[in-house]
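Notes continue from the previous slide.

Worked example: a multi-chain complex. Inputs as given:
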Amino acid sequence: MNILNDIDTEFQERDYSKPREEKTEIKIEDLSMVFQDKNGGEPVTALKNVNLDIKEGEFISLLGPSGCGKTTLLRIIGDLLQPSNGKVTVRGESTRDIRLQKKYGIVFQNPVLYDWRTIRRNVCMPMELLGMKKAERTKRVSKMLDLVGLSEFGNHYPYELSGGMQQRVGIARALAIKPEILLMDEPFSALDEFTREKLHIDLLNIWRKTNKTIVFVTHNISEAVFLSDRVVVLSPHPGRVSAVIDINIPRPRDMESKQTPEFYDYITKIRNSFEGV
Amino acid sequence: MTDKKEKYKVNLVWIIGIFALWELIAFFLAQVAHDPMAEAKLPYPHLIIVSIANNFTELLSAAGLTFSRAVVGFALGAVIGVVLAIIMSLSKIAEKIALPYLIVSQMIPVLGLAPIIFTLAKNMNTSRIIIASYITFFPVAINMLSGLNSVESDKKELLYSYAAKKKSIYFKLMIPYSLPYLFAGLKIAAPMSITASILVDMLGSSGGIGVKLLYALYSGTKDVFWASVITSACMGIFSYFIVIFFEKICMPWRKQTS
């Protein structure tokens, strides 16, 4: 797991010894989302009166079963969806302004790579949109590929890579333009357990190196506990926040953190917090 | 690479098989059934080869004339098809206005349309080009449009999340994504544009493979007729493989399946 050692990243590295400043980055106020049925059926309430403050540099997970609106919430934060009611602000600015300033990095459930571009050019794509100079792009792409351990695969096409590697390309691409907020929508759900565990460690390393705010959507309880500073438990019908749980497992975390009693305590606690399940 | 070797073997067996079967049937017609029209119905294939060899330069120049016009018309039609598809994908209203009439346009038989265009254009080469592009643009536009319409929404959302402009969306996503669809259309259109060009030849052109066909048919030179038919067929097949060649160059990311 030493892929990060030689990298001179331009990001501000996290220092675990100092307490983090508790500045609110994303403020979610009284958010509701109702989907109208196109065929004239009953409207579906995906989210109801959600209030949540996400702190700067925090790793926060949105956890819940299918239909709890966790992806909907993430998409509203990322300005991919407009809420029916309430609002989301990022340091006082609207989500639209943040998107137009290209400050979001989104990692989707599928890698969403462009088949006709090599890995390098896939990672390069957001930088092209930003209008970066070619020399600068080439330099950053190499750095990003180092960060996710794929330097040797730059000139391959996506179909030549495994699912786990493709997902790491997606992460590299999201980080390429130094976004302030990383939104991840069940990024590892399609991967096998071994690959997933490796990517968990990689992601925590990247997070430590880059000091981003990460909003992570998952339906996997142990994944949420292992990665997060806080876990937001959402319940379905209608989607709402049923609990917010601080995870105080010391960092840096590694595979052994998963074998501590407190890790299991958190899992039990979260499991019990699901309403009516 | 054994796959490739096997493919050659399969093709070789087919070619030899068809050739042998043809010889056999021709022999049957001429010698066993004593059909007086045997030579016209199905001449010996080796005689056709001899005839092609004897008339090689003539056939080649005639084919070249027809082919070059077809290529110009094909290229023009392809460009028109792509532009139409992009316009229709940009605007739903444009699609609603244009699509039904594009379909209607293809219901007019080229056989009927060709003389009209010839009268209007008053020039054989121009008519060839117009008819070939008229045949080409439709399958290209329809295939390209279905490609543009089938871009996955998450691929679009990625660009949306970076606030990409329309131009970037088309050049970075929509058009490259649609290339396989475009080539599917081009593969259909290429042999059709050759056929159209031959058809125009037959309307009273001074040169071209269609003229060769017609003269040979009227003058009763059966071997030249069949040589022209085979040449025409080869032109169609050749045009198809030219498209495949460009497809491989333009889309190196596609797994080499066939």
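Summary box: The interface with chain B takes residues 78-80, 99-100, 102, 104, 106, 108, 110, 112, 114-117, 125-126, 128-130, 157-159, 177 of chain A (CB under 8 Å). The CA atoms of residues 79 and 99 of chain A lie 7 Å apart.
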